[in-house]
Amino acid sequence: MAKEHGSLSINSQNIFPIIKKWMYSDHDIFYRELISNACDAITKLKKLSLIGEYEEPDDIEYKVKVEISSKDKTIKIIDNGLGMTSEEVNEYINQIAFSGAEAFLEQYKDKTNDDQIIGHFGLGFYSAFMVANKVTIDTLSYKKDATAVHWECDGGTDYDMSDSDKTSVGTEITLYLNDDSYEFCNEYKAREVLEKYCSFMPVEIFMENVDEEPKTVDIPEEELQEKDVVVKRFTKDAVTEEVEEDGEKKTVEKEPAKKMVTINKRPEALNDIHPLWTKHPNECKKEDYIEFYHRVFKDYKEPLFWIHLNMDYPFNLKGILYFPKINMEYESAEGTIKLYNNQVFVADNIKEVIPEFLLLLKGVIDCPDLPLNVSRSALQNDGFVKKISDYITKKVADKLSGMCKTDRENYEKYWDDINPFIKYGCLKDEKFAEKMNDYIIFKNLDNKYLTLKEALEENKENHENTIFYVTDMQEQSQYINMFKADNIDALILDNRIDQPFIQSLEGKNEGLKFSRVDAAIDDSFKEEVNEDELKDISEKLTDTFKKALNNDKLNVNVTKLKDDNISSMITLSEQDRRMQDMMKMYGMAGMDPSMFGANGQTLVLNANNKLVDYVAKNPEGENTKLFCEQIYDLALLAHAPLSAEAMTAFISRSNKIMELLAK
Ligand SMILES: Nc1ncnc2c1ncn2[C@@H]1O[C@H](COP(=O)(O)OP(=O)(O)OP(=O)(O)O)[C@@H](O)[C@H]1O
């Protein structure tokens, strides 16, 4: 072909602002764009061969090669795909002044949007100019009698085209890196980027550092394969050993001499061209899922279970969602959902496609139909994207409810680990909440799992619509013992997510009330007494305790508990406690709760207890103050941990009481 010099039919006002804009996002994305073009070119050629349009050489091995050189500061991406004729280079590479770019600029000119926008406008190839001063293409089309084309452009709007000496079908793109981008020809960096974007691309990808001598390995001659590059052949000496037999030293041969070959290390593809999610669930074994999980998420722990998504209609979507142990108490639970478009990595955790609560899981989703190269703000309003997101939510709910129905044993086994996720999902997603409604279970004091309905049924007799619960088995043990002694059940709700969750349940189920075991002393724990009977003692005790504790505002409630071993307890109404919890959460701890209408704790005194009775009868007794203080602290202790100061006082007082006893 005649040499050709021309101007790209774009102008710099047109394309370079887009490329510059893109500059703000990840530069490494050029690897993805160029390698996915190379994979596409190979996929297309394979199709042409299938329909008889191309006769492929017998020994064809389709692959993409990435050659890096730190010495030359170059990256080459070489494929044996369908290649391009000079007309095609003209059409696909030179004439990029498609109306799309202008329309795009018009639409986005006011937005600093750094999302994946380029690919959508067919600018993938030009991403090379984010990192390179100069780019060349050498390409030979598969078409009969095609001549090879050399194209080069130094980042301006001029290009040169001439004949190329390329003799094999395919395309070789060379990037001459700019000063800021040398890192991309560093072997480690290149490997990292390729692993990020190309780990599951559908054509084998090999990387080679051309500055380095090829690495070699020694193998036994019989393992030599046809494609191996032999460096040298040698014989490994026999391995012998000295042994003593009948008092005589002998040399015996442990391993015979062996013929060996030194070969260049066989190239290893850095990607898995048939990732697990592309297979049919029937073909996949448990070990496959676990191995895939370890490899992709670098998580040494085992996932609890998983969902394999596999759907062709009405849209194409495949993927695997793993349920890891989800602990929202101590670590900020955050999963990773990797999104792919035809095995090309797009991004992690795209909230527009994956419902937010699912981001607590780990998984991969491949959706070729997604317009993923469009900006995220466009995705947000895309009805199709919403459908995908709804589908994923539905599948997750189906899996969980199915497991609850048919494999309750495992469901219960996993429940403690997955319930924060499910509850969070219910709070975040109304549809998910509806679907999961009947499959939320609660652990009770006997470690049995009940649905809300079952729990209400159990307590129906005396406490219609009220569910008692425990948030801390240790702290609330005294209350729990009372509940157990009286055969009243309570649920264990000890995760942070439980508070908002039960509030939402109360909102949805009219009349339903959750009450923590220490919110009030239930009537069933008390003896029936006549109010007047307690009036006298009540006034006396209130006065004595207020004085002894030097606290005028103390709320005291005197009652007769069936269990006379208990001297005192603290109660805090459900409403007040929730208010205080909320204040703590918003960092307002230490403020006076009464400001918000929460009047705090009540000290419940048991008139049946001997010590309390003693205080009532001896308000001026020598040790009455000491008893009051101790009774109060004991009640506090059974309710929540004491402050450091209170604990110190409690310990020194306890010692003093023992001294008194020892006298
Ligand atoms: N390695 C290659 N082999 C053959 N043709 C190629 C190669 N790279 C690019 N092309 C041709 O150039 C065209 C433009 O590539 P470019 O990456 O700019 O956009 P695209 O691939 O069409 O769009 P997108 O990046 O959104 O997929 C391609 O559609 C393809 O026809």
Automatic annotation (TrEMBL):
Which terms in the Gene Ontology molecular function aspect does this entry carry?
A: ATP binding; ATP hydrolysis activity; ATP-dependent protein folding chaperone; unfolded protein binding
Which SUPFAM superfamilies did the record assign?
A: ATPase domain of HSP90 chaperone/DNA topoisomerase II/histidine kinase, HSP90 C-terminal domain, Ribosomal protein S5 domain 2-like
ATP-binding: present as a keyword of the record?
A: yes
Gene3D superfamilies assigned to the protein according to its UniProt record, in alphabetical order: 3.30.230.80, 3.40.50.11260, Heat shock protein 90, C-terminal domain (1.20.120.790), Histidine kinase-like ATPase, C-terminal domain (3.30.565.10)
UniProt superkingdom: Bacteria
Q: What CDD domains does UniProt report for this protein, alphabetically?
A: HATPase_Hsp90-like
Q: Kindly give the InterPro entries that the UniProt entry links to this protein.
A: HATPase_C_sf, HSP90_C, Hsp90_fam, Hsp90_N, Ribosomal_Su5_D2-typ_SF
Keyword annotations:
ATP-binding, Chaperone, Nucleotide-binding
Residues annotated to bind ATP = E33, N37, D79, M84, S99, G100, T171, R376
Q: Which family does it belong to?
A: Belongs to the heat shock protein 90 family.
Name the record gives this protein? Molecular chaperone HtpG
Species: Lachnospira pectinoschiza
Print the organism lineage. Bacteria, Bacillati, Bacillota, Clostridia, Lachnospirales
